[in-house]
Amino acid sequence: MRNAYDIIIKPIISEKAMDGMQSKKYTFKVASDANKIEIKNAVEEIFGVEVEKVTTINMKGKPRRVRYVMGKTSAWKKAIVKLTSESKTIEFFDSLM
User: Fold this and answer.
1) What is the per-residue pLDDT across 87-97, written as a single tens digit (0 to 9) for each?
2) For residue 90, what are the CA distances in angstroms to 11, 21, 24?
3) Does the global pTM surpass 0.85?
4) What CATH number has the domain spanning 4-85?
């Protein structure tokens, strides 16, 4: 059994993620092998909220170049978590708005 902090790696702070916070949608970078049920349980445990829906997206690595050397960024997994209408908001994100 994995720890909840191993599943949720970090929150994503972008313009699109900030726009979703008005409708109680929060975006996180999660472990690549985590499934939706594990993500839901981890968010509920860490932040003490009720999760309605979890959407996951596998983000592919982008090609990058430094001088003559070609490489690419690592692939990662993004989760968009929608809270129920009765649930409280996540305080961490409230301070950013």
Assistant:
1) 888 888 777 76
2) 11, 10, 9
3) yes
4) 3.30.70.330
